[in-house]
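Support request, priority: normal
Reporter: lab tech (M.K.)
Component: structure prediction queue

Hi team, I submitted a job for Polysaccharide pyruvyl transferase family protein from Phyllobacterium myrsinacearum yesterday, and the status page still shows it as pending. I've pasted the exact input below so you can check whether something in the sequence is tripping the parser. The sequence length should be 391 residues. Please let me know if I need to resubmit or if it's stuck on your end.
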Amino acid sequence: MSPRILLTGIPGHVTRLIQRAEDARVFYSEKQPQPESKDAYLRELKNISNTGNYLIGEGALRALSPDATHIPFWHLYNAVNNGTGLDSINKQFDICVFTCANLLRKSLSADAEAQVLSKLDMPVVMLGIGIQNRPDLEESLPEGTQRLLQVLKEKEHYFLTRGDETASYLKDQGFSFVRPVGCPSMYFMPANVRKAIRRLPDVKVGEGRTVFTGYMGAALDTIGDMNALSSDDGRSAYVIQDEPLHFDMQVEPNEDGRVYDSTSGEMIGDLTFKGSGELKKKIKVHTFFDTNQWRAWTSSMDFSFGRRFHGNIIALQSGVPSLIVAVDDRMREMLNFSGLPKVEANDLNSANDRSAFISDHLAQMNIPQVIEKYSDRERSFRSVLTEIGIG
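Reply from support: The job had stalled in the queue. We restarted it manually and it finished. Here are the results:
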């Protein structure tokens, strides 16, 4: 008999439709939000903090057996804190899959996670857990995160990490079941991912429709990318994930009081950001709160390039050739493990001609080898889920 799986943690985009939750039941609205005013747009961003995170929950739900039921983490947290408790949850589920990301970092204390998971009377699978920076592991992690690890050590646990570095760290901490598998988002629509990789040698850098992701508003590197790699015909675009929340990007309503068009996903308000005067190319800016809309729009592009992991992963899911710029240890762990196409940020930033550098980089790739490694990682991921009994 298949285990009854409780899926919680980082959600997929359908969490936007949740109206309320009672015990183990979640009630969804049939009405899609249309966050076109400034307040509504920013509120929608704050609900997830980073729209790229939606791919994590979505990838997990697709990979698990049909017996998996998503219950929002906030509902479990409220139940623990308002006295309702998790008795009903514990009776209705056999195992918890907790989707996470760079949970092991000094800037985050996992107090809420420790509190909730300590009340679950079932094994816990930490799916997609990873580091932010290697030096964070050389110091003491925050108290809440240490408490979380102790909670997990005291029950049956499964750590499915984003890569080898996190796996080594957790093994050193004495955890028994640790497997590096990567991020579940990488294995959503794998046939399209392989198709996208095969198309990389055909990319004509600077000539087609390129979609960029990065940290616009925080640094000028992304602007340099767009100046060097986008076409001159205005068909290239940039996709926002969290810039108005965490970086120096401001958006103000247009004459109709709108900042965002829900139909196209295009930003239509007055957008300002650090270094905007340095941008020499005409670039349209988009945001997507629905991953299906995001993929459908991305599928019309010729190339995806940028400094955001999930901003490029969704392009791969859409069959669009993508090259990811590795900007930190978090990304390097996932990219080195998966073998997905990447370039180091320092090498790109120091290139005299970024367009020529990227063209040469793509030409030198061993595409069959890239596909073989990715396919091996995908098989391993599904094998581990089957081993646990949740695949």
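The CA atoms of residues 146 and 369 lie 39 Å apart. Residues 5-186+377-388 form one domain. Let us know if anything else looks off. Ticket resolved.
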